[in-house]
């Protein structure tokens, strides 16, 4: 499986020539003009970058070529522009703190090549039953005490929610309980249909995470058990139910720079930009097909964040998995370039995560502060705590 996936031919490149003289490692195919600091020659195409810098509102009609132009701007110019736009749409001191809890680990039937939770790979991970409602709410309480405003507590290793009525009932109780504490609630449960999305909305769900992972072209090299379009269908169901969408990607899956452009193009041309765009750096897990992968270069991460900030100016950009491998200065560069959310706590699904104390100290050094809920969804708590019973009858279920 590993060999098959890794040797599968990659999609066509945007341009065929690679210039070895370029001064940074992630740009596609052309040298920088020292006068303009642009990769593309001056002219019509260059206006996409300029337009993005002066934009007053998000737009969803981006072409891949326009996004490639932004992505290919020299990093020093790109990050400066992203920082400028970031200040127009966000308070640069406010960083959303989210805590992630896995409510059911492992045993997943999908074949995502990077994932420790797939039952197809021997990673030594033991599958668990679903956590009880009480234990999730206790973890949410601790997260809130430590400054988290969003509890993305509920990652569950499932393909979809078909035939999981009891699980859905308990998850709704978790959502309602988290919202009753005055926090935002996010879940990631695999594919969901329109009806399930409506039920979760009624329970008070703030956001649903469903990453597209990479570009449409590179996607089949990473996952074969569900299609890109199936992922987009879930995102559509979530958007139509009025739930905020959190969708982004993973860098370091063997993709090329033009796949970062493709990823941003997919999410920025949805009917509405996602509320949140997580940027994950692959943490290679031994036993998975991508377990021996080389780390993605930092400039590729920074370039992706800065491009996403310019292309989706209002979206919250989440520095997600892999942050614990970055020195503080690198994290700050990401915040300067437009990232404004982190996962904090003890563990991110099956990989390590920066701890609360470490993050608090970093915030203090740099004048950062946790983002308030009103700054993200701008919504007051509206869900009745009586809608669902969150008592102890919800025990651990399979
Ligand atoms: S990423 Fe999600 S769907 Fe894919 S194998 Fe892991 S748990 Fe399953």
TrEMBL record:
Keyword set includes Iron-sulfur: yes
UniProt KW keywords: 2Fe-2S, 4Fe-4S, Biotin biosynthesis, Iron, Iron-sulfur, Metal-binding, Mitochondrion, S-adenosyl-L-methionine, Transferase
Domain Radical SAM core: start-end pairs: 93-323
EC number: 2.8.1.6
Protein's pathway: Cofactor biosynthesis; biotin biosynthesis; biotin from 7,8-diaminononanoate: step 2/2
InterPro entries linked to this entry: Aldolase_TIM (IPR013785), BATS_dom (IPR010722), Biotin_synth/BioAB (IPR002684), Biotin_synthase (IPR024177), Elp3/MiaA/NifB-like_rSAM (IPR006638), rSAM (IPR007197), rSAM_sf (IPR058240)
Cofactor(s) the record lists: [2Fe-2S] cluster; [4Fe-4S] cluster
Enzyme class label: transferase
One GO-annotated biological process of the protein: biotin biosynthetic process
Classification via SMART domains: BATS (SM00876), Elp3 (SM00729)
GO molecular function, one term: metal ion binding
UniProt KW S-adenosyl-L-methionine keyword: yes
Any single Gene Ontology cellular-component annotation: mitochondrion
Similarity remark: Belongs to the radical SAM superfamily. Biotin synthase family.
Annotated protein name in UniProt: biotin synthase
